[in-house]
Amino acid sequence: MNDGLVGRPVMRVDGRAKVTGAARYPADDPVPGALHGFLVTSTVARGEVVGIDKSAALAHPGVVAVYTHADLPRLTVPTFPYIKGFIPLQGTAVHHAGQPVAIVLATTVEQAGEGANLVRIDYRAEPPTASIDDAPQPPHLPKPFRNRPNEIARGDAAAALAAAEVRLEARYSSPPRHHNPIEPHATTAQWDGDSVTVHETAQGVNLTRSVLSTAFGLPPDRIRVLAPFLGGGFGSKGPVWPHTILTVAAARLARRPVRLVLTRAQMFTLTGHRAEFRQHLRIGATRQGKLTALVETTTAQLSRTEESIFNESDSTSTLYDCPNVHIRQEGVPLDLASSSYMRSPETTAHFGLETALDELAWQVGVDPVELRRRNHTAVNQETGSPIRGKRLLDCYRIAAEAFGWSRRAPRPGATKDGDEYVGWGMATEAHTFAAAPATPPVTASVTIGADGRAVVRIATQDIGTGTYTVIGQIAADALGVPLDAVTAVIGDSALPYAGVSAGSATIASITGPVDRAARAARDAVVALAVADPRSPLVGVPAAEVVTAHGHLFHARDRERRDSYRAVVGRHGRPVETTGTLLNAPGHSWGAVFLEVRVHARLGSVRVTRVVTAHDLGRVMNRRTARGQVLGGVTWGIGHALMEHTAYDRSTARVVNPNLSTYLVPVCADTPAVESHFVDHQDPDSTALGARGFGETPITGVPAAIGNAVYHATGRRVRDLPITRDKLL
Amino acid sequence: MKAFGYSQVREPAEAVRAARQTPGAAFIAGGTDLLNLMRDGAQHHDHLVDINHLDLASVADSSKGLRIGGLARMRHVAEHRSVRERYPVLAEALEASASPQVRNMATIGGNLLQRTRCGYFRDAASACNKRAPGSGCSALEGWNRGHAVLGGSEHCIATHPSDLAVALLALDAVVHLLGPDGPRQVPVDGFHLRPGNAPHVDTVLRPAELITAVEVPRPAARSRYLKLRDRATFEFAVVSIAAVVDLRGGRVRDVRLAFGGIGTTPWRSPEAEAVLRGAPLTVDAIERAGRALVRDAVPRQHNGFKVELVQRALVELLSGWGGSR
Ligand SMILES: Cc1cc2nc3c(=O)[nH]c(=O)nc-3n(C[C@H](O)[C@H](O)[C@H](O)COP(=O)(O)OP(=O)(O)OC[C@H]3O[C@@H](n4cnc5c(N)ncnc54)[C@H](O)[C@@H]3O)c2cc1C
Questions:
Q1: What is the pTM of this model?
Q2: For residues A202 and A470, what is the distance between their CA atoms, to the nearest angstrom?
């Protein structure tokens, strides 16, 4: 018997600690004797450091050291997940504004900051390029990134396009955007001989460990990375960034622990971003709206040192049934920092695809939902193998009904309420979630103590999504103990191996191992009980013992019972088990329907109603799953209506590197969200029927908003964000 | 941030003395702008004179008008009953400003003296004549979506960000100052300076001068504030309008219009007012007033939409004005 905890909307087990301040984030843990580090960053975007004068900084009270490329030992530039191509302070070249050129160590953080202001750097500067429009050279096709080719061709797209009954061609664009988690990136490094402990704002403690291992040429077991809590990451804390390496290097040189916390402005150049993005899409279809050809060329900003593209066209390639596809993901190197993963990387290309389908729907006179149904596929477009357990059609139906889609006005610009036009729009949502690598396999351990309590250990992370809570639910369910009898210990690379909390892989990859370890622990305790003459269950076949509420019962005679506490207590030492299980990548899908109101005179856009339905396989926790939907919809509103990073065209510096001028939605911008889940067991899941989900909601929101704005006003905005100046 | 000295004062005269005697001193009130500027390296002060303990935080209304202490908090003023009833444009402008948390700290004096939100001004590494005279203006050819279309010069096109100042301008308010040479009064109209050749000088305030109060004559007419921005709350104006309109029998007997977001200072438009004064408040008249307002506008690459938007906003605000009071 089990408590049925999995799936329940259980409250976050760490919620109280977080709201009371008891939760210690990586920069909170006191480290005795730690110096404070502060980065000096380049004011120019392209050129070379030709002179450094540290004297004023070194004379400043409290400043202990100033390190530059002349002081740092040579380090090895790691590859993925170090997405930069170079390590700063290893030479004099400057590749982007905000690149670290020195690090100052001081007794207080204020002294370090002022010390950084006092370091004088002379540059030989060259004029930079900051926008795709200004790039001197045409875009090119970069080499494959992590084995993903940048060109995908299936069938004969050119011929199919030429022969199509209906053709549509459009260009879409998205501006650069930054992750902006509330918690700034922070590193605290403490060396002990040749070993180092790093308190890090990491979405992947093991990724951080592997990058540091390469950079410093240290065996991984000399490095311990700790990240017990995270104040959001959104992908920016998955890769490892220069400040982490530089802090570890500085601590070694100074022979003192060093803590370094990035400023908000530094987070705009040092921790990745969603690249500026252009998309040229040509669609061929039948008069009924069935896709026959998809031809897409995208252009993303690259940096001078890194050629990877993080605005993938997964959706164009895989979301709909289309036999003829040709996708080219091109890039243009600019004098900007390297871009990287940002929650739901496919969102930018997905915006164009889902907008184009809306345009196609109007063009052929088919309802946009019906058009998507006609192009639905239950076959993996890339491999040709069937997709099992895909319930996207249910998502359309459920969300459309809940929204009242059938009452939609048939013409754009037809509905006015007071001073505002009212419009409805929808889009499909989809995200590919990742699999954890097979070696080493993800492993969890479960220890049951003499107090009857269980401790689950696994080197995963809770990036704010509810991992602590879900681990508790899984283990408590498997063991048959109350939720509060389980403690999850995570965020430490010394624990049994797990991968990065990114790519929506956490639940998909850790659920199986945790469940297995817990079931093994349960079986071990049952075995002890039935073999123990002091147990009321002695002699009962193990298969006839059930566990619940911390007790062990005879299935048919519930008066015969024992408890975890008693069994393990008599045993005299803890019971410890481990579990491993692999997972495969997959998809979660959904549909978002929403209403906007556009002020006829002032062009203000308000999102006033949102209904979602998602197929994420089995829902592990309705509350935390809904949290992902709320966050995703909110972010989607931001992407659609306001978010963008502004670079100065002549200096390539960020003009709005703060949350006062880089706008994200506030509560008043976000309506209530009605979220539905198609809750079912994915037959191919190794995670108790669940799939990865965190990044699915958001993917369709920007297009749904643009589609609704079109329905409201008859104006099609293809360049995000949809600010009022585009609607006047 | 540079280390700085810090002292507290209890009397206005003591504040002025302290500021005059200490080189590089500045007053600190709520600190909601000053500390950000210092942290961003946009402004340096060797010493801060804390004026939060001065007895200048009261708000009093009489038949002559409203007297707001220079250290009254934005929230206190916005919630004051007389302000809400008799000076709605003021309450509306304050409540459309910043966030509740900021308004709890921020003072009226500090609000009038807050500095532009121009990204180049607040980035110590960018050229900016307001921050570093003679270094150039990055906004002219740069990211200027938020910048002014009126009142700019070849040296600066930054907007003044205060909503309060726009409302006070429409209300013909007067700023009371205390300086080394004693007290003086300056109308809000004229308090803020256009950039001209000296964009680093925002206002007529002299060194060590303290804002002790703002006096607002009681308007004989209805007043309202309209603020348009890029998100629903907690954001500065793209365009804002404070209007005080005395409408009698469908005709405009008197009107005062002030604008935010479009000018380098809180912007009063006598031209637009003149079109409306004596005229019936029709959409046609309002549109003519709007055209008069923007006649001399100089749009740049990213802010040209403000020229159109402010005219639409004026129609929006005034065409729904309704009956007289
Ligand atoms: C996130 C954010 C959003 C904001 N949004 C808005 C908005 O939408 N609309 C808006 O109008 N404002 C907005 N503001 C600005 C805010 O209103 C001002 O920061 C605030 O009013 C300044 O008051 P303070 O008391 O904190 O001044 P301080 O920061 O203490 O001082 C500001 C300046 O005024 C001087 N000073 C202060 N008081 C006096 C005095 N009595 N006499 C002489 N000099 C004095 C100081 O020396 C300093 O130079 C926002 C601010 C923030 C941080």
A1: 0.97
A2: 20
CB pairs under 8 A between A and B: 88
Task: Tell me the three state secondary structure of residue B34.
Answer: helix
Predicted confidence at residue B320, as pLDDT, reads 84
Tell me the C-alpha to C-alpha distance, in Å, between residue A72 and each of A65, A67, A216, A324, B9.
12, 7, 12, 53, 48
Find residue A102's DSSP bridge partners.
A40
Q: Tell whether ligand 1 has an atom less than 6 A from the beta carbon of residue B259.
A: no
Q: Is the pLDDT of residue A2 over 50?
A: no
In the residue annotation, A695 being an active-site residue is answered as yes
Distance CA(A243)–CA(A36), nearest Å, equals 13
Residue nearest to atom 13 of ligand 1 (CA): B98
CA torsion B137-B140-B141-B142 (nearest 10°) is 70
* SS3 state at B6: strand
> Is the model's pLDDT at A122 over the cut of 80?
yes
Interface of B with A (CB under 8 A): 1-3, 40-41, 117, 119-120, 122-123, 125-126, 138, 141-143, 145-146, 228, 230-235, 238, 305, 308-309, 312-313, 315-316
**Ordered domains of chain B (ranges, CATH):** 5-50 (3.30.43), 223-321 (3.30.390.50)
Whether the CB of B106 sits within 6 Å of ligand 1: yes
Interval between CA B34 and ligand 1 midpoint (Å): 7
Residues of chain A contacting B238 with CB distance shorter than 8 Å: 724
Chain B interface includes A305 (CB < 8 A)? no
Pocket test of ligand 1: the residue of B34, B68, B121 to mutate, having most ligand atoms within 8 Å of its CB, is: B34
Contacts of A118 in chain B (CB under 8 A): none
Q: What is the CATH number of domain A15-22+436-580?
A: 3.30.365.10
Q: Do B312 and A602 touch (CB under 8 A)?
A: yes
**Half-sphere exposure in the Cβ direction for A258 (13 Å, CA):** 28
A157-203 per-position pLDDT tens digit:
999 999 999 999 999 999 999 999 999 999 999 999 999 999 999 99
pLDDT tens string B266-315: 999 999 999 999 999 999 999 999 999 999 999 999 999 999 999 999 99
With CA atoms as reference, report the closest residue to A629 among A555, A558, A698. Answer: A698
- The pLDDT, as a whole number, for residue B324 is 38
In degrees rounded to 5, what are phi and psi of residue A92?
Answer: -105, -10
Judged by CB atoms closer than 8 Å, whether chains meet at A663 and B312 is answered as no
CB contact under 8 A, A602 and B117: no
B231–A656 C-beta distance less than 8 A? no
Q: Do the Cβ atoms of A651 and B138 come within 8 Å? A: yes
Q: What's the rounded mean pLDDT across residues B132-143?
A: 98
Per-residue pLDDT tens over the stretch A325-383 = 999 999 999 999 999 999 999 999 999 999 999 999 999 999 999 999 999 999 999 99
CATH 3.30.365.10 fits A277-434+585-726, yes or no: yes
Give me the CATH topology for the region A35-126+182-232+237-270. Answer: Aldehyde Oxidoreductase; domain 3 (3.90.1170)
Nearest Cα of chain B lies from the Cα of A110 at a distance, in angstroms, of 6
Region A441-468 average pLDDT: 97
Q: Is the CB of B69 under 6 A from ligand 1?
A: no
Average pLDDT, integer, range A720-725: 98
Cβ B27 under 6 angstroms from ligand 1: yes
pLDDT at A209: 98
Domain with CATH 3.30.365.10 in chain A: 15-22+436-580, 277-434+585-726
Query: Is any ligand 1 atom within 6 A of the Cβ of residue B260?
Result: no
Residue of A328, A170, A310 whose CA lies nearest to A236: A310
**Dihedral of CA A721/A722/A725/A726: which sign?**
positive
pLDDT at A30: 87
**CATH 3.90.1170.50 domain locations along chain A:** 35-126+182-232+237-270
pLDDT at B323: 46
Q: Is B10 helix (H, G, I), strand (E, B) or coil?
A: coil
